[in-house]
Amino acid sequence: MIRVIIVDDEPKAIELISSYLSHFSDFQLVETFRNGLKALEFINANPIDVIFLDINMPHLSGLSLSKMISKETAIVFTTAYSEHAVESYNVNAFDYLLKPISLERFSTTITKLTSKLIKAPITPNGVITSKTIFIKSGLEVHQVKVEEIHYLEKDGNYIYYIMSNKKIMARETISEALSNLTEDFIQVQKSFIVNFKKIDSMTPDYITIGETKIPIGSQFKSTLTKKIQL
Questions:
Q1: How far apart are CA 1 and CA 77, in angstroms?
Q2: Which of 41, 52, 95, 189 qualifies as a FRET site for 80, CA 20 to 30 Å off?
Q3: Which range among 92-106, 126-140, 143-157 has the greatest average pLDDT?
């Protein structure tokens, strides 16, 4: 379980982030604070994995507080002022969220935090089980095991995650999707990413996964060839 605190002098901001966190079962909201000094006192006495930290606060600013926190703690800055972004990355910052924070943007941060903080469990025979990612689709956030994804298909501004028993639509780019996946996934055409482990067969022109034939783009053939070591 990932232990989280929220530090923000705005009650509505705390309420919003708290409601977003409730969608993600791996994250436990331990405490909230409207005062940086009180938060620092708590952090010094309790183990914390993630802190959602407002930059502009009275008495002790978020930037000042961040410099007093262990580098083992992932700091996600939250602020309504974009000009603080550069300064925030000069300290121990994991991510930066600009208010008003959307659930879609928040989900991206959660996915990155999950990849960083949750190590894939190892079974008794030494096999590492699949990592999971969070996929934002409309008002829902889906938790999916990466190994269950067969391929991804882009259609306009949306990407479809195709699995054996379901399909999830997300509004994101190819590069955004690839950044959350493992090295088993490879782009084979401008609109397709495939799970290398799900490939049933391949010709010079297309890949077959189950009943689906996926075209191979000419600019991706050399990369694919290196991947299969032919």
A1: 21
A2: 41
A3: 143-157
User: 78 with 166, same domain?
Assistant: no
DSSP 167-191: EEEE---HHHHHHHS-TTEEEEETT
CA-wise closest residue to 6 among 41, 53, 38, 66: 53
Count other Cβ atoms within 10 Å, centred on residue 111.
21
Give the per-residue pLDDT at 60: 85
* pTM, two decimal places: 0.57
Note whether 146 and 212 are same-domain residues: yes
Angle between helices 103-117 and 11-21 (to 10 degrees): 60
* Domain with 62 in it: 2-117
With respect to residue 127, please indicate whether it lies within any of the assigned structural domains.
Answer: no
- With pLDDT > 70 as the criterion, what percentage of the chain qualifies? 88
Report residue 62 CA to chain centroid gap: 23
